[in-house]
Amino acid sequence: MFPTVSHFLNYLFGIDLPLPFNTFGVFVALAFVAGYWAFSQEAKRKEALGIIKPTTRKVVIGEPASMLSLATNAFFGFLVGYKLIYALLNYKLFVSDSQTVLLSGKGNLLGGLALAALFAYWEYKEKEKTKLPKPKTIAVTVRPHELMSTLIVWAAVWGFLGAKIFDNLEHWDTFIQDPIGGLLSFSGLTFYGGLICGGAAVLYIARKNGIKPLNMLDIGGPGMMLAYSVGRIGCHLSGDGDWGIVNLNPKPFSWLPDWLWAYTYPNNVANEGVPIANCVGKFCNVLPQPVYPTPIYEVIAAFLIFLVLWKIRHRIKLPGMMFGIYLMFNGLERFFVELIRVNSKYTVAGISFTQAELISSLLFICGLILVIFSIKNKEKLTNY
């Protein structure tokens, strides 16, 4: 396994290059890049078809830098300098435990003040370049696909918060033992929490910019599935604990690689299992018994679903139907993976289920309802 990018580079090229980047985080970033690409492409297509339209916004140009903008830039610059300079001066600590460095109160005061002054000065000079004797108000046309970068940022922030909240609810016993650590930790993220909260934030911003909810949902369906596929690669390569139950069954096909059927996740980032002999360092555990590598199964399934959604998107004309199909595929994929995946279970009225099984079932039902709604309201939605 490759808990950090350094481990991956060492495996590929045999070089020891200490970097403060964990593999899971890198693939989460790549997932957002993939999602942004798909969102933008689909937004441009719907824009060309006239389904979503540009909006006009009034902006004031020629104004000097305001005290608020200077203060905001100075504050942001201080945070960057406070942490960045400290991290560079304590690079070994940053590489070994970047989370503690970033989330603790430790930092470099002089570095923070220096970058605060630099960021404020930069903002001042940029505003001076466009300053007019008399500021004026102009109308600016905002094309829908230009909003996608903003939407992705909102999805990332609120998606992370939602993923943390749902994960802590799912592992309540662990959370109440260390609530601060549970909230601030970068590990432990629940996909459906991120989907629900991130999706709500995206819909809010899209509606403020004239994009109707069903159209925005349709734009996001294929991209979210692609992003999920990319993100799950990071789960597998880092060994973050999203694996399956113990699998001691013989391979159904001799040509099937062992790691695709049953895997022990050596050097996993979750530090679960038993110590590895002669291993030195932070990630030195391996699972005592092989398990189903469910993240890989989800990478393959999600990517195939993305290809299907991407192929049929031209044929779907009714608002909401694409997203309904996405929800149904999403729910089915996750429900069946949950059958062989390790997860916390709840028991209600004698029925045992996981959080993901419950939510995936609800998503499938909601998707089916949305598809039926789109068909039954075909005439109304044609001019939606």
From TrEMBL:
GO molecular function: phosphatidylglycerol-prolipoprotein diacylglyceryl transferase activity
Biological processes annotated in GO: lipoprotein biosynthetic process
Xref: Pfam families: LGT
TM annotation in the entry: 20-39, 60-85, 105-124, 145-166, 186-206, 295-312, 318-337, 358-375
Keyword terms, alphabetized: Cell membrane, Lipoprotein, Membrane, Transferase, Transmembrane, Transmembrane helix
Cellular component terms per the entry's GO annotation: plasma membrane
Family affiliation: Belongs to the Lgt family.
Protein known as: Prolipoprotein diacylglyceryl transferase
Upper lineage: Bacteria, Pseudomonadati, Bacteroidota, Sphingobacteriia, Sphingobacteriales
